[in-house]
Specification:
Beta-Lactamase, ATP-binding, 501 residues, 13 helices, histidine kinase, seven-stranded mixed β-sheet, PAS-like_dom_sf
């Protein structure tokens, strides 16, 4: 540029100077017009310009005789270059040499034509400088685009939005007219209002926007903006930038998902470890009780001479031995279920007759506890099932009802309902709390005693029953109105034929 130019920082220190300025002036010359510059830049705002009065500042040139200073007159043109994300705000000062104009104006009016010509020349120079500035802005925008940054501006009065091509691509719109300030500053009304209020108060806003890039992929864009204000404090525009942060965001989401997965796995592991501890304690207690009974009755059998005592001891040993056998079977079956190797021998089975047999086996246990047993609604219903496995299901439901019920009754029914055989075991026992219902079929579960939980047991009976029923393409559900209201277990198995008698 032919005119002397300076770029100053906020403390009026020289940041850079063009060749024309360095040729005419020395750094010390700036101190002679420092006060004038300070007055010039007061209240100077971005995009505005101010011009100083004419002043004299002599400079030394090669044409000066004997190294003297040649009188020169100047006018300074100041403008504020706004800050960018990478550069602070700068003050641009152009030194306009008006020596000839000043001297000629005082010398002769006949030079007006020449002065007008020079004014025209200055206009051309200003126009050329403006063109160069526009070219520089375009180059700057292209440089930002190459670095992945899009720029935008919203005129508050008109609502017109000006976006760079990179900004439009980031936001997923084809043209500026398709973009509103609401879409730019927040899709949801609440976020837009909050962002707009922040901008009006002078605070910058920054948020992440999820943009639909294609039918299968989304893009994440960082949007940042800040308000620009007039001297009276009125916000005239909002400027900002966009930055594609898809890679960073996807990495963050992957890390969050991994952390959630690890946390869930750790919680499951801790819960399983706790359940295993409870299970081991339950096994130790449950196995010890029948074993102690068997040993005690066996010792008594050696000493007893009364036949009645011998029969009683034999019955006790048989009963506790069967209890041990069932617990061992449950443990073995739980392992088989866990490995997917539980054996099934499917054949037509009368679920009503099977249930009646199991009920008779459990009758002494039920009546010994003083409970009433209702079996009036057990009817023949043929299903495709494994006889022994279904007996295991019915037995587990019955013994579970006995454990839960201290007084009252247990009712068992088998009916044909629709295309399924329905087995119902209902008790008037302790009931189950609502928050425990979803967990009742979990492995090793032992519901707390204050919730009306189990009295003993390994925590495998209902879990095994559910898996066996699932292998029969059936369902098992439980209903309870709460503590003290009893419970009702319902098993539904697809029926083959039915005979109601």
């Amino acid at each position: 540029m032919p005119d002397p130019y300076l770029a100053l920082d906020g403390a009026l220190a020289i940041v850079t100077a063009n060749a024309a300025w360095r040729k005419l002036f020395a750094p010390g010359d700036l101190r002679q017009c420092e006060q004038l510059i300070r007055a010039l830049v007061i209240e100077l705002h971005a995009g505005g310009r101010r011009v100083s009065p004419v002043f004299r500042l002599d400079v030394r040139t090669e044409e000066t005789d004997e190294g003297g200073a040649r009188p020169r007159y100047w006018q300074m043109h100041a403008s504020l270059l706004p800050a960018t994300p990478n550069e602070p705000a700068l003050i641009a000062v152009r030194f306009d040499d008006v020596t000839a104009h000043t001297l000629k104006e005082e010398e002769d009016r006949r030079e007006k034509a020449l002065l007008r010509s020079r004014a025209r020349l200055r206009q051309l120079l200003v126009k050329d400088a403006g063109q160069r500035r526009d070219d520089h802005a375009s180059t700057f925008e292209q440089a930002l685009a190459r670095t992945g940054v899009g720029v935008w501006q919203v005129d508050v009065t008109s609502g017109i939005i000006d976006c760079s091509e990179r900004c439009l691509r980031d936001l997923g719109v084809g043209r500026t007219a398709a973009l509103t300030k609401e879409g730019l500053l927040g899709e949801r009304t609440g976020r837009f209002v909050a962002n707009w209020r922040a901008l009006q108060s002078g605070r910058p806003v920054e948020f992440e926007l999820k943009v639909q890039a294609s039918e299968e992929r989304f893009r994440w864009v960082l949007i940042r903006g800040i308000g620009q204000f007039d001297e009276d404090g009125t916000m005239r525009s909002v400027v900002g930038f966009t930055l594609d942060i898809t890679g960073r965001k996807e990495h963050e989401l992957e890390l969050d998902a991994l952390a959630d997965s690890e946390r869930t796995g750790r919680e499951r592991s801790d819960a399983f470890a706790k359940a295993m501890d409870q299970f081991i304690a339950a096994v130790s207690h449950e196995l010890r009780s029948p074993l102690n009974a068997i040993v005690s009755w066996a010792e008594l059998l050696q000493l007893a001479a009364d036949p009645a005592s011998v029969v009683r001891a034999g019955e006790a040993i048989r009963r506790n031995g069967r209890q041990l056998s069932r617990m061992v079977d449950d443990l073995l079956d739980s392992g088989a279920v866990g490995t997917g190797k539980l054996s099934m021998n499917m054949q037509p089975v009368d679920l009503g007759a099977l249930t009646a047999t199991v009920v008779e086996d459990a009758r002494k246990l039920i009546e010994h506890k003083g409970l009433r047993l209702g079996t009036s609604d057990i009817f023949p219903c043929t299903v495709m099932a494994d006889d022994n496995r279904m007996k295991q299901v019915v037995w587990n439901l019955l013994t579970n009802a006995v454990k839960f019920t201290d007084a009252g009754s247990i009712e068992v029914s088998v009916i044909l309902k629709g295309d399924c055989a329905e087995l119902v075991v209902r008790d008037t026992g302790r009931g189950i709390e609502a928050d425990a219902l979803p967990l009742i079929f979990d492995r090793f579960l032992q519901v707390a005693q204050n919730s009306g939980g189990r009295v003993g047991g390994l925590g495998l009976g209902l879990w095994l029953a559910k898996h066996i029923v699932n292998l029969h393409a059936g369902t098992i559900t439980v209903v309870s109105d709460g503590l003290g209201q009893g419970a009702c277990f319902v098993v539904r198995i697809p029926a083959m034929t039915s005979h109601i008698g």
